[in-house]
Design brief:
Elements lengths: L14 H14 L4 E4 L1 H8 L3 H13 L3 E4 L8 E5 L3 H15 L2 H8 L5 H4 L2 H4 L3 E4 L5 E7 L14 H10 L4 E4 L4 E4 L2 E5 L6 E6 L13 H14 L7 E8 L2 E6 L6 H4 L25 E6 L2 E6 L12 E6 L10 E3 L13 E6 L2 E7 L9 H10 L2 H8 L6 E2 L5 H4 L9 H11 L6 E6 L2 H16 L4 E6 L13 E7 L4 H10 L4 H5 L2 H11 L12 H18 L3 E6 L1 E6 L27
Parallel strand pairs: 5-14, 15-23, 19-20, 19-21
Antiparallel strand pairs: 1-3, 2-3, 4-5, 6-7, 8-9, 9-11, 10-11, 12-13, 13-14, 16-23, 17-21, 17-22, 18-22
Helix pairs in contact: 2-3, 11-14, 18-19
Length: 595
C-alpha cells in the first residue's frame, strides 16, 4: 500500500510572525520595509498594546525582523524583515508537507498569502489517502469555503447535509436507485388509517456517541424540535407520542402518504434528548463521531454503530480557501500527484444534480413589468455567454430543475431581436437594474456579461457582488439575483423542500400569488402512494406542473446545470462519488495498489 507519514508531533510555525507578514504583504505588497503602528499590530494579532510590544520585541530579538519603534506615543514604527517572504514560505511549506502537518498547512493557507506560494504540489500531497505509523487508515480532505449551518433544522447546503448524515442517522433511508424507502433506525413502519397516523418501530440496542441507548423519547424530542424550529417541514403534524420505549407514533391533521419520505431527509436526523445540540460538536448515533481540530474537524469511526463499523478509521476535513473564485471543476480526493504505481486518478465528467438560475425580487418595482422580465430572459443566452467568454467546461443548458430532465429536452431559444422589442414594450425608465451575484470570478463574469449585453440594447444594469455566505432578501436593494440550488438523494423531496424552506430564495423573492399556486400544486404530494408503481410518474407530473408555474411568468429563469470532472484515487475501492462529488465515508476503504 502507498502510505504517507503522519508524525505525532508536527513542527509549530511562528504564527504571530506569519500573521504579521501576511497582513503587511496584503497591505503593501512586496517590500523590504513596512510602516507599522501598535494599533495595526493589536488588530492583526487580536491582543493588547502591551502584548503587541512584547511580540515585536521577541521577533526582533530572535532575528526574524528589525523593529524600530516610533518616537512618542502613536507615532509610526518601522519593521524590516531579514528573509525574502516567498523563499521563507517555500521552505516552511515543504517542511510542513514532508511532516504531513495538514492542520498547520490549512491554517497557513487562511492567512492570505498568495495562493501559489502556499498551495504547492507538495502541500496538496499532505492531503488525500494515507496510513499513520499506528496503522490508522485516514482520508485527509479539504473544504474550500466557510461552512454554513450544521443544524438539521436549517441546513441548506449539500456538503453540510452530507457531513451531518455521517454523524447522525434518520429513521428511514431513501434508496435513489430503487426509488423506495428502506429501514434504518426504524426497522418497520406503517399506517393503520391510510396515512393520518404513522407508527415507527425502533431498533433496540442502538447507541448514541455519548453512550446512551436510543429510545422513542429521542424520536419524540427530535420531531418536536423540528415542529418548533422548522414548522414548514412537519406541517400537518398534530401530535408526536412514544407509547412504548421503542414505538414512536405521529398523528397528522389529514392523510399524507408522502410523510415517511420527509423522515428520511436531513431535517429529521435523530438527536439525543439529553445533550444540548452544538453545531461545533454534533452528537448522534451515526457511523462517525465528530471531533474538533485546529482549522477543521475529524470524523472518527464509531465502533458501536448499529449498521456496522466504517471500514476507514478517520476522515479529517480542513477548511482551506483553495480558490477565492469558483470551486474547481475537479473534485479531487487523490492527495499527492499520481505515481507510476497508482497510475493516476480515475476521472469522469458528471452533471451535478443542481441548477443555476436568475430570479427576480418580486418586491421591487422593476419586477412588476412582465415585458421587462421576458426581455431579460431573452438577453440571458447561456450558450452565447459560454462561447463569448471562452468557457472550456462542458455546458448543459437547463430547462428543468434536474439535469436528467433537461437532457431530454431541447435548449430554449433566445433572440436579441425579441429582447429589443420587449424592452421597447416595457419602456423601463427607472434606475439601473441591480443584479446580485456571489463574489466568485465565474459568477461575476456571467453577471457582467449580461450587464454589458443589456447595455448595448439600452438597459442599464449594475452588478452587485456579495459575500459567499450571503443570501438576498425581499427588502434588499436588488432587482435580480444569480444563484444555484442543489438537490439531495431524494430528488422529489428536495424539490418540495427547496420551495417550502423559508431560508431559501424562492420563498424570499417570488410573488405571493406564485407561491400560493405552487403550494397548492405541491399539496398533491400527499396523495401519491409511496412505493406504488405509478409513484414516480405521478411525482414527475407534479414537478412538470410546478415548473410550468414557476417559469411561465419569467419570475425565474433557469440557466444551466454545472458539469464537473471528478477524480477518484484508484486506491479507493468499491466507492464512487455521487453527482455532487460526495463520497459515502461509511463505505470508504483503501485498497492495495498492487492488487
Amino acid at each position: 500500500m502507498v502510505v504517507s507519514p503522519f508524525p505525532s508531533a508536527p513542527p509549530a510555525p511562528d504564527w504571530p510572525y506569519l500573521t504579521l507578514r501576511a497582513a503587511l504583504h496584503a497591505r503593501d505588497g512586496v517590500r523590504d520595509r513596512h510602516s507599522l503602528t501598535l494599533t495595526d499590530a493589536q488588530v492583526w494579532w487580536g491582543c493588547s498594546d502591551r502584548t503587541a510590544k512584547r511580540q515585536l520585541s521577541r521577533l526582533h530579538a530572535a532575528g526574524r525582523l528589525a523593529y524600530t519603534p516610533g518616537r512618542g506615543r502613536g507615532h509610526t514604527s518601522r519593521v524590516a524583515f531579514t528573509g525574502a517572504l516567498e523563499e521563507e514560505l517555500a521552505a516552511l511549506t515543504a517542511h510542513l508537507a514532508a511532516a504531513g502537518a495538514a492542520a498547520e498547512l490549512a491554517r497557513l493557507s487562511r492567512l492570505g498569502f498568495p495562493r501559489a506560494w502556499v498551495l504547492t504540489d507538495a502541500v496538496r500531497g499532505a492531503f488525500g489517502l494515507g496510513v499513520s505509523p499506528a496503522g490508522t487508515d485516514r482520508l485527509r480532505t479539504v473544504v474550500t469555503r466557510p461552512l454554513t449551518s450544521l443544524d438539521p433544522l436549517t441546513v441548506n447546503s449539500a456538503a453540510e447535509a452530507h457531513l451531518l448524515t455521517q454523524v447522525l442517522d434518520p429513521l428511514l433511508l431513501f434508496d435513489p436507485q430503487a426509488g423506495t424507502l428502506r429501514p434504518h433506525l426504524a426497522h418497520h413502519w406503517g399506517t393503520p388509517d391510510d396515512g393520518r397516523t404513522w407508527v415507527f418501530h425502533l431498533r433496540k440496542g442502538v447507541s448514541f456517541h455519548h453512550g446512551r441507548t436510543l429510545d422513542a423519547q429521542d424520536v419524540q424530542f427530535t420531531l418536536e424540535r423540528v415542529r418548533r424550529g422548522a414548522p414548514w417541514y412537519l406541517g400537518g403534524v398534530t401530535a408526536v407520542q412514544a407509547p412504548t420505549p421503542f414505538t414512536a407514533q405521529v398523528t397528522l391533521d389529514q392523510p399524507d402518504l408522502f410523510f415517511p419520505r420527509r423522515l428520511a431527509h436531513e431535517q429529521a436526523l435523530i438527536l439525543p434528548r439529553d445533550v444540548p445540540f452544538d453545531e461545533r460538536r454534533p452528537v448522534g448515533t451515526g457511523a462517525f463521531r465528530w471531533h474538533a481540530l485546529e482549522g477543521g474537524f475529524r470524523l472518527e469511526a464509531f465502533g458501536a454503530h448499529f449498521a456496522g463499523r466504517p471500514l476507514i478509521d478517520e476522515v479529517e476535513v480542513f477548511l482551506v480557501p483553495e480558490l477565492r473564485g469558483d470551486a474547481p471543476p475537479t473534485l479531487d480526493v487523490t492527495g499527492a500527484a499520481p505515481t507510476p504505481i497508482t497510475q493516476g486518478p480515475v476521472e469522469s465528467w458528471v452533471p451535478e444534480n443542481s441548477v443555476h438560475f436568475l430570479i427576480w425580487n418580486a418586491h421591487r418595482p422593476a419586477a412588476r413589468s412582465a415585458a421587462l422580465r421576458a426581455a431579460v430572459v431573452e438577453l440571458h443566452d447561456i450558450r452565447a455567454f459560454w462561447q463569448e467568454a471562452g468557457r472550456t467546461e462542458r455546458l448543459l443548458p437547463a430547462t428543468s430543475f434536474l439535469p436528467r430532465r433537461s437532457l431530454g429536452r431541447p435548449p430554449r431559444g433566445h433572440s436579441l431581436a425579441r429582447a429589443q422589442a420587449l424592452l421597447q414594450e416595457a419602456a423601463y425608465a427607472g434606475p439601473p437594474l441591480r443584479v446580485w451575484v456571489l463574489d466568485l470570478p465565474g459568477a461575476r463574469q456571467e453577471a457582467e456579461w449580461l450587464a454589458a449585453r443589456a447595455a448595448r440594447l439600452g438597459l442599464p444594469v449594475q452588478v452587485i457582488p456579495a459575500p459567499l455566505d450571503a443570501l438576498p432578501d425581499a427588502g434588499d436593494d436588488v432587482d435580480l439575483a444569480f444563484m444555484g440550488e442543489i438537490a439531495g438523494w431524494d430528488e422529489h423531496l428536495s424539490f418540495w423542500s427547496a420551495l417550502k424552506q423559508p431560508e431559501l430564495l424562492f420563498r424570499r423573492l417570488l410573488p405571493a400569488e406564485v407561491l400560493r399556486d405552487v403550494d397548492a400544486l405541491l399539496d398533491g404530494y400527499r396523495t401519491v402512494p409511496v412505493g406504488a408503481a405509478p409513484e414516480h410518474a405521478a411525482l414527475e407530473a407534479l414537478m412538470t406542473r410546478v415548473e410550468a408555474r414557476l417559469l411561465g411568468g419569467h419570475h425565474l429563469h433557469l440557466t444551466h446545470h454545472r458539469v464537473k470532472r471528478r477524480a477518484v484515487h484508484p486506491l479507493i475501492r468499491d466507492v464512487h462519488p455521487d453527482a455532487y462529488g460526495r463520497i459515502d465515508f461509511k463505505r470508504l476503504w483503501l485498497g492495495d495498489a498492487r492488487a
